[in-house]
Specification:
By secondary structure, the chain is α/β, with parallel strands linked by helices. It has nine helices and nine strands.
């Protein structure tokens, strides 16, 4: 928007998420590769920030240290799939305690205490697994969703502030009504698609009503023709039930389309 300065410009970086129990989405870990990829984000993509997320504390801290040394502002997001409230809090606190050591040295580190917890964590939306909760919330109202979510966030931030003294936020889903008084930054995963094309800017403007800095922690689309119309659901062209996963229908690769969607 004219007249506004974009302070942090970056991409998300997955260090491995436990979508499948006892398995990480990034099965192979090599510090040299991580260093090369983060350097490319810093120098080739001209980013000054990176949103690092994953389900392994050692990987999160190792990649954050590399990114900070490269001069990137790190947004560090412990993301545990299907964890109970107690498991989620324990994981966030472990990462927060170790992240505060890095913050004291480099300062440029913001902690994200989770993302879309109404879906990723167990107990707020009915469903044993993430996919079941996604389907449930798409088909059914969950009257207690916002109250239960904010109760969990309240417990998380009290516990987190006891061990982490830097900026703290939360990566909310667009359907989540978060009490942002608790946080230093208003942050939302906000994907643009055919449904919200005309209201996307006004949705961002409303976030500024809290009088705090605003961050869009996830946006964009896949790199095939037409993906920008589906936004955050563009990955649904993949059938993840097959081994290996296959495309449900033919698509045409289009990097420029992804660029237009982001722009």
């Amino acid at each position: 928007m004219p007249g506004l300065k974009l302070l942090d410009k970056g991409v998300t970086y997955d260090v491995g998420i436990n979508f499948i129990p006892n398995t990480l989405s990034r099965p192979v870990w090599d510090d040299r590769i991580v260093r090369q990829e983060l350097a490319a984000i810093r120098h080739d993509l001209h980013c000054n920030a990176v949103n690092i997320y994953g389900s392994n504390a050692d990987r999160l801290i190792a990649s954050a240290r590399i990114a900070l040394a490269l001069g990137l502002h790190v947004w560090l997001q412990p993301r545990l799939i299907d964890g109970t409230a107690q498991e989620t809090q324990a994981f966030v606190i472990e990462v927060a305690r170790r992240a505060d050591v890095l913050r004291q040295q480099w300062h440029e580190l913001t902690l994200i205490v989770g993302g879309e917890l109404s879906l990723t964590a167990a107990g707020i939306v009915p469903g044993e697994h993430l996919d079941a909760r996604v389907m449930h919330i798409m088909r059914n109202a969950v009257p207690t969703l916002q109250d239960d979510l904010n109760a969990l966030l309240h417990r998380l931030i009290i516990a987190t502030r006891a061990v982490f003294k830097g900026r703290i936020t939360y990566a909310a889903g667009s359907w989540e009504a978060v009490d942002w008084q608790l946080f230093d930054i208003v942050a939302v995963n906000l994907y643009r698609d055919e449904r919200n094309r005309d209201t996307y800017r006004s949705a961002i403007r409303r976030l500024h009503a809290w009088g705090k800095p605003v961050a869009i922690t996830e946006f964009g689309c896949c790199s095939y023709q037409g993906a920008e119309r589906a936004g955050g659901l563009a990955h649904d062209v993949v059938d993840w039930e097959t081994v290996p996963p296959t495309l449900m229908h033919e698509v045409v690769r289009d990097e420029t389309g992804a660029g237009r969607g982001a722009a």
